[in-house]
Amino acid sequence: MSLRGSLIIEGEHEWRIHVADDFRTLPKSSEHAAIVATVKELLAKSKSVHSGCIIAPASDSCFFSCLHLPPAIDTRDRSALIYELENHLPIDAESMAADFSVLPATTHKDQTLHGSSVSAIAVEVHDWKPLADKLESANIPVTNIIPSAILAIASLNAKHSFAGISSLMLCHANHADLITLADDHISSWKYAKLEAASLERHKFLDLPESNQILVVDCTEAQGSLIRDHVGSVQIEPDSLVVSCLQGANTAFSKPASIHFNLRRDDLASEDPLRPINRQLSWLAFAVAACLITMIFGSWWRTTKIENKIAENLLAQSEAFKESFPDTRVPASLLRRVRSEHSRIMGSRNATKQIEAPNSATEVMRVLLASLPTDIRVRISSIDIRNGDLDLTFQVQHFVEAGIVAEALSQGGFDVSQPATAQKDAKTFESTIQAKWRQIVSTSTNQAAEGAAVSSRAEQNKPSIGEPNIPTPGNAFRIAGPQTETPEVDAR
Q1: CA 123, CA 59: separation in Å to the nearest integer?
Q2: What is the DSSP letter of 139?
Q3: Could you tell me the residue ranges of all domains in the chain?
């Protein structure tokens, strides 16, 4: 079976080292340096294999206990659990590395008495830290320290989907792991010699409620012995080593599915990010590449904008030279243009378009076309400034000033109330201020001009559709001097 990384299994008399499809065995007395050298040799032959390594201690190197905790102890408090475990093991809390798994609530009948139950596995730190440090120094990251029996249980559970109370017997030559599972959690674990007395004791303590008994890697004689003292059992066709390899692959691909990992406490890696150093390196490379791309993009965009600004400045200079050939181009041409624009706008912050002034000749034309033709009017003065009109004129009756104002209003002016004063017994002088609306509908102008033409036709008067030009026969005078000479009526 192909392994995704490297696995070091401690046996009763040897070390088994697996990498990919290859493996080596070393004597149990081998130095740590020899084990590391063998792992490196196998990794060199299988370059595509994940460099992570799992150390699998043997069952006789592990300690197990099932803790029935009072409600006052929180199962998430590792320190409290370790010191509670110290009361059940022959080693002190400072020299052990332990991991815990909370058992299902159905494991014990009286939950109010015990609160909760926790299964605990521990190893002595000084037995495994030198090997783990030696592997780390050889650039072989130790990702997990998991007992070989736990790896086998993970593989067998994936294959058989244990539910309720189940029993496993993992045979190692003349010894066996006698394990009771509550669902997929270990509630009892004993490592004993495979003989009639241990089987009877195991049957009496753990088997009465078992739904399934699974035996792994036993000989025919051992199988007969187990059946004679336990009863009907199921024999697993795969060997214990194959089950360990499958469990190791599960630990590499789905670490959370393994309940116990002793790579913690004093056995934890000095660099907790060591197992993912390669992934972090790729992430750092990706971030650096992204930053370089952003910097280059910003530089390219800035260069493009600067070139465009230079082209615009050159075009502005050429336009300035063309408009003012005898003037030197200012050093800060854009500031000069903005200053002149602000001066024209009348405000430094004004942004709306400059409006073109109204034509005085157009206003004059509309004024003359709008004057009534059925009364005498002497115009004293006309002042036109960008559509604003100040008109001073004389009439024979003050009512006629209102007629003139009404005529201008119909002609397209916003007219204020005329100010009229009597000049003499026969003359009234009036002043009108008006604002030309500039946009007057064509139909209104045509209707006004038609009415004026009809009125002149009846009275045989000259047309005022055109500007009135001062002549001896005209009734209008534009800014003319006022005299006592009687005016001649056009009629």
Answers
A1: 10
A2: T
A3: 6-160+239-272, 281-345, 360-459
Burial pattern 282-307, b for ≥16 Cβ within 10 A else e, equals eeeeeeeeeeeeeeeeeeeeeeeeee
C-beta separation of 339 from 438 below 8 A: no
DSSP secondary structure letter of residue 354: P
Q: How much is the average pLDDT of 189-200?
A: 90
> pTM score, two decimals?
0.59
Residue-level pLDDT at 471: 42
Q: Which of 419, 430, 451, 445 is nearest to 377 (CA)?
A: 430
d(C-alpha 393, C-alpha 403), whole Å: 12
Average pLDDT, the chain: 83
As beta bridge partners, residue 236 has: 216
For 6-160+239-272, CATH gives 3.30.420.380
pLDDT digits 0-9 by tens, 58-81: 999 999 999 988 888 888 899 999
- 128 with 145: CB under 8 angstroms? yes
297-346 pLDDT tens trace: 999 999 999 999 889 888 888 888 888 788 887 777 777 777 777 777 76
Architecture of domain 360-459: 2-Layer Sandwich (3.30)
Joined tokens for residue 105: 């609530």
Q: How far apart are CA 462 and CA 368, in angstroms?
A: 13
**143 sits in which H/E element:** strand 142-145
CA atoms of 119 and 13, how far apart (whole Å): 28
